[in-house]
Design a protein that fits this description.
The complex is a heterodimer. Chain A has a two-stranded antiparallel sheet. Chain A is globular and about 60 Å long. Chain A folds into 2 domains: about 190 residues, no CATH class; about 70 residues, no CATH class. In chain A, helix 2 packs across helix 8, helix 3 packs antiparallel against helix 8 and helix 9 crosses helix 10. By secondary structure, chain A is an all-alpha fold. Chain B is mostly helical. Chain B has a domain of about 220 residues. Chain B is built from 14 helices and 2 strands. Chain B has a two-stranded antiparallel ribbon.
Chain lengths: ~290, ~300
Amino acid sequence: MAEIYAAALLNGLLIGGVYALVALGLTLIYGVLHIVNFAHGSLLMVAMFAAWMLAELGGVDPYLALPLVSALMFAAGWALYRFVIGRVSRGEDRAILLATLGVSVVLDNLALVIFKGDTRQIETPLTFAMWEVGPLLVSVPKVISFAVSILLAALLWAFMARTDTGRAIRAVAREPEGARLMGIRPDRIFALAYGIGIACLGAAACLLLPSFYVSPHVGNVFVLVAFTIVVLGGMGSFPGAVVGGLLIGVTESLGGLLLGESLGPIGISLVFIAVLLLRPTGLFGAAR
Amino acid sequence: MKPAHWFAVAVLALIPFALPSQSLVNIAMLTAFSAFLGQCWNISGGFGGLTSFGHSVFFGVGAYTVAILQTRWGINPWLGMPAAFLLGAAVGGAIGAASFRAGLRGSYFALVTLAFSEVFRVLANSLDFTRGGLGINIPLKLSPENFQFADRRATYAVVLVLLAVATLCAASFRRSRFGARLIAVRENEDAAQALGVDLVRTKTAALALSGGLTALGGVVYAQTYLYIDPTIAFGVERSVEMLLVAMIGGAGTVWGPILGGIGLHLIADVSRAWIQTPGFAPMLYGVLLLVIIGVLPQGIAGLMERWRRA
């Protein structure tokens, strides 16, 4: 009995690593641009299809494709902000929210037009690989995705903390006017931050693909999860996104075990509502 | 709007009764249905500025109310209608009171409504009371007393009445004290509060009204298709469509949702004749939404206003 719980806990922690990476992109975009990027799930879906096509048509293993897909998603995110979201929204809160919703409607349905509604999967040599850890069986691709996600989160943190570009991004997030006076161009930083946030999705997609399916609707699976993590951890907080990702991964996994497969997903939505209603600043957020 | 305009609109609305085929009447009915749901969203989302991503929660509550009342307890669906309205309004009031008291606004409110609709979807999907993922079949008993019509024109008439009621509600906002308060809250919460407007109460009332009306849409859906399941009832697609109709037609305008409903159905029907791939028409809606936000914040209604003034 205890083993089932231990397995669920471990599984939740492992998937939570990738959730953290997805949420990190979202929290970065929120922290810098102060926008709620509703297109996050759909952009993850786009990245998953990109990785899937590279694997299916080009025979490239998703792990090897990670740098390429991340770079492509960075470019896509940068262009999307520069030419669509930034332009359409004119800096209004509601317009930005609706613009990201519009982008997600377009992307989801474009994927439906191109790929039809089927779910697709790929098999890599590691898809079914397992490690025995004591009495537990651990899926190898999940361990890899966890380790790489945490590594990338650390790299992103180092980038933000140690490089000039990272400092410029943080400066714009705090005080866009002050940053402008120091010779930083906030509009460029916004597009850059959006691009980096979306690049996280490119990496997450490549890590998910060996063990997860992809379909035009797969973004819906992740969008509420990602927002729950970010809100739980505190909007804009890096450590919050990582801790929140792990907590939500475990919540989902234990919720499925305790409440059953159909009622289990309710846990995430309830956590989300409870945090927003009771403690909107989250675990690590600064007071508003 | 001059009396002559109202008259012209009324004549246009009556044309479908003279249409020769049921399938044409059906198109008119679906168009009016979309316009009605868009108008429901517009009451809170347009006039109140309460951007909701989860209006399907009210639609689903209405549909399940009428379906459960008649399949479990044999209660006539006409009586299910007021019950659905009250429950929809209660859910709207509860979500509103909880969210607005917690100070949620803008994007946070949008996300919390999405989460609520997801909670209801998961519950409907797993409880025996709602028959889980199987959904509920309403037995076929075609008769007007039973709210099941063989003739689509009758369904169209019901939808038309609902659309007229919702549109009159929206139109009354221009004159009524409640409407003035609601629009004041949308435009500037701090200023409205300084003038003595109770923010939580005003916004909650708008969401309750919108929720009650939306639930009536769920009733009509259930009685027309005689089947309801968790995704049809509480799926995010319904919420997004309601928002799109209102936004594209013109959020916060009286005629916007009607123009939006007509516009979206024209796109759907024309594009279906041209490209039949699923997803194509909704993709165009998304593009249209981006264009509207970018250049026409008042939607098609704003565009017509501009022409009239030019």
